Amino acid sequence: MLSRTADSLFWLARYTERAGNVARGLGVASRMAAVSARFGAEADEWRSLITASGGDETFYRKYETPAADSVVHWLVFDPENSSGIMSCIEAARRNARAVRTALTVDMWEALNDTWNQLRAMPPESMEGEKLVDFLGWVRERVTLFNGAAHDTMLRNEAWRFVHLGTMLERADNTARLLDVKHHLLTAEAEGAVDYVQWQAVLRSVSALRSYQWIYRDRLQPRLIAELMILRPELPRSLMACFAEVAETLEAIALGQGGRRGECHRVAGTLQAQLRFGRIDAIMEEGLHGFLTTMIDRAAALGGEIDAFYIQHA
Amino acid sequence: MGAASSVSQAKTAAFDEMRAEEGVRAAYAEIDRWLRATPREQLDSKRHEAELLFRRIGITFAVYGEGGDPERLIPFDIIPRIIARTEWDRMATGLRQRVRALNAFLGDVYGKQEILRAGRVPTALVLENEGYRAEMVGVAPPGGVYTHVAGIDMVRTGPDEFYVLEDNCRTPSGVSYMLENREAMLRLFPRLCARHRIAPVGRYPEELLETLKAVAPPRAGADPCVVVLTPGPYNSAYYEHCFLADEMGIEVVEGADLGVENDVVFMRTTAGPKRVDVIYRRIDDEFLDPTVFRADSMVGVPGLMAAYRAGNVALANAPGAGIADDKAIYPYVPEMVRFYLGEEPLLANVPTFLCEREEDRKYVLGNLDKLVVKLAKGSGGYGMMIGPHATWDLREEFRTRILAKPGDYIAQPTLALSTCPTVVDQGIAPRHVDLRPFILSGGKEIRIVPGGLTRVAIREGSLVVNSSQGGGTKDTWILEDEGPGEEPQPAQSQSQTAAG
């Protein structure tokens, strides 16, 4: 497959997944902000969301304080934020248009309709009272795209690069969401607010129910961290995502007669580390340090994939 | 899409391909019955259905820099344009002959230049022409083919009068419409199609691929790597580039996807560099290779021409093929047929006046109100004047322009372009049409799929059929002469015979 085609497939999947993840984060943060307002900690929610979306530098150059208005504007509309919902959908559709023949009709229509509908939406239908509905719509569209890809793509290299993009982006997102709340999971003290926060963390990866199914116990920080980092059953856990990444890279290598590079080594190492890791050891060494390393290595892996398959460095 | 097609309306009524003086022409008998039997509302709903179909498939024609929606739809007329088999066969024989001559001419002007030495075509007209690529002198393209895909624009003025309006030897476009229009007709009017014996066009991508494979360098073996080279998504014909690549099952690549090392072209794939043998390029000559042609080209491939000269890759069409379709060269094509093939040309040219020649210029300036004046280099219907329709001011403007740069202009009489019934807002009315058949040359073989792109000027009285100027398209049916109804119906499935 052409490197440019692979690159576009990888990125259209990443941007689509990112749009969905921003919608998830924003949905949970706005819910939390309402709760925290009673304790005067509303700004903390918005601040940690900006941090999670990786926008610390650029956001503060433009806005003074993180508040509902500025954060929603930044994460939904602002064209200067390349990770904002509109920017992501725009970038996904641009990549899709460049490789239309590599997509199935269902995938193209899922992306193209999303883009067309978004273009036609008045801004007032995306903020204030309507924000929650709008975020739900974004998540639905992302689910539709993922379903279209999963259901209609031939299981060849095109599918693998799409899947690689989705899974790498999802891993990155889970690590970030968890990292901004790491202090809540390591602090000894436990109050009512913390409990709500824990619920919020789980909700952001659609895992509140899953937690109950797996542990049948009240929420505990150590188990929340274990679920989101190490449990293979949770489809958005680091373990699950990085396993998919490593297996997909392996499938590409097998399709090319065993041609492998640094990206395969990095992916394999990450997978092994998570597969054989223990949550107590991770907590002991420091959750924040561990998650930061994960985020850095996900980025490094993206770079190695680019170098090996796209740029031929 | 394509170059200017401007043959003007004469004062007398134009030849209508459906209605002759003595009644409906035989080939259109079934269409006539169908049109009579179909209420207007039904035609309208089918028109609407057709539009939705084209939008959904995404067959758009990109027009940038004019404001408005850049992804436009070319109007599709649901009434097919019909050509009888005998008419087509005669035209096809002529097209083969003409393309053979054009190819021979290209091989000659980049080789021995015999036609110039014989004085049959003015030397300066060729060697000083912008379309002439000195870089191609002495290069022998694989199979001796220069114009692998030619689009010859044909117009009709009477039952037996066909003219070549212009030749397109560079990168003619529009063939995707020929294919998609047929698909649309089969979907919208299955029964109407079944009542006709329509020559199929669906083989075109296969024939194109065969043609391209036939000119691969010998070392490529039985399964050469063929690609389509596109300038990218902002090109007006991008849809067509992707469509053809998809139909042929090959990659559509951009300049940045290709690289040249040791005079070998390769494409960047996820499995590493892959050698490329044949490039169906839909990029103009000037942009092909920044180290040889325009240095500012962002869409080309540095080193491509060196690889081509080394015989390591085939380019279709060959660089420099444009010299053969130059509007100033056009009047000499019949001469090429005689010179190279020793035959009389089967297809007629529209009489053409070269303003560069003093005698011609005098005539043109004296008859501006009767002639069509075109830029010799123009395309897309831009920069031309249709004398009988032009204002006095416009005619005077062209007089000044011709006097200032006579070499830039040619003129032709206004032909009464034939018309076909077309659905318009007021009902069904005759509208002027032309036809672009596509002729494929690979090695010894010339292939023509029976059909082509019929373009129709939707505006009443308009003679400009270019899609960039509001022209539409029709499906083109080449019909077997026996006419409808003679095809035996398939036998019914056997049923139980009543006992007793």
Report on the structure:
Chain A: This is Alpha-E domain-containing protein. Chain A: InterPro entries: ATP-dep_Glu-Cys_Ligase-2, DUF403. With 313 residues, chain A is an all-alpha fold. Chain A folds into two domains: 153 residues, no CATH class; 160 residues, no CATH class. Chain A is built from 16 helices and no strands. In chain A, helix 1 runs antiparallel to helix 10. The longest helix of chain A has 34 residues. Chain B is an alpha+beta fold. Chain B folds into two domains: 293 residues, no CATH class; 95 residues, Rossmann fold. Helix content of chain B is 28%, strand content 24%. Chain B has 13 helices and 25 strands. In chain B, the strands form seven sheets. A five-stranded mixed β-sheet of chain B has the order 5-25-24-21-20. In chain B, strand 6 and strand 7 form a beta hairpin. In chain B, helix 3 packs across helix 11. The termini of chain B are far apart. At the A-B interface, helix 1 of A face helix 9, strand 9 and strand 11 of B.
